[in-house]
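Fill in residues.
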């Protein structure tokens, strides 16, 4: 075999053959639908961590597949936060075992119902409202209250419009779950001096 710049032509032929074989065996990527893309983004983003009630197993808490993304379970007791444990002058946070309720200097926040239920979830929301909520940190597309911690809207709001639209498409594809979420509870007043 002849040498080509220090490499034998046999090596070049083998490399080309391997490249062609790899290309012919590679599974062609099929484009994801917006719902599939949204599911992927929601799952790797950890949205179930806070927005899904949990089932407690021997391996620890896992999202309850019958109530995915339904938020803080309606009717669940709201734990009493020990006086002084969290206050407006210091940072810290507490959560319930299923992470659907959080308490901190902002007060007590409840994970929202992200299913398409018309009365208690995203059923009446538009795609634009969803995107604007995550871009502005204001609930209902900027028409309502601030989104409270620990919701990382500042980070999620940096996603592309296409990714946010895909997430919304995924949430809208879920079965609606009627689950009214309590309003946030403001923080306790700082002690008088």
């Amino acid at each position: 075999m002849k040498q080509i710049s220090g490499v034998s032509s046999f090596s070049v032929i083998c490399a080309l053959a391997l490249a062609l074989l790899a290309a012919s065996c590679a599974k062609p990527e099929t484009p994801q639908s917006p719902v599939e893309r949204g599911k992927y983004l929601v799952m790797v983003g950890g949205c179930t961590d806070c927005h899904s009630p949990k089932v407690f197993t021997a391996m620890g808490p896992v999202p309850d597949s019958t109530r995915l993304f339904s938020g803080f379970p309606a009717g669940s007791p709201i734990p009493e936060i020990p006086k002084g444990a969290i206050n407006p002058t210091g940072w810290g946070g507490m959560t319930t075992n299923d992470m659907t309720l959080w308490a901190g200097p902002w007060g007590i926040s409840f994970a929202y119902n992200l299913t398409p239920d018309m009365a208690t979830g995203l059923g009446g929301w538009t795609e634009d409202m969803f995107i604007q909520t995550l871009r502005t940190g204001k609930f209902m597309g900027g028409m309502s209250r601030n989104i409270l911690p620990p919701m990382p809207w500042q980070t999620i709001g940096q996603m592309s419009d296409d990714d946010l639209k895909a997430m919304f498409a995924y949430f809208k594809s879920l079965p609606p779950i009627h689950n009214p979420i309590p309003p946030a509870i403001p923080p306790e007043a700082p002690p008088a001096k």
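Residues 9-24 have pLDDT under 50 and may be disordered.
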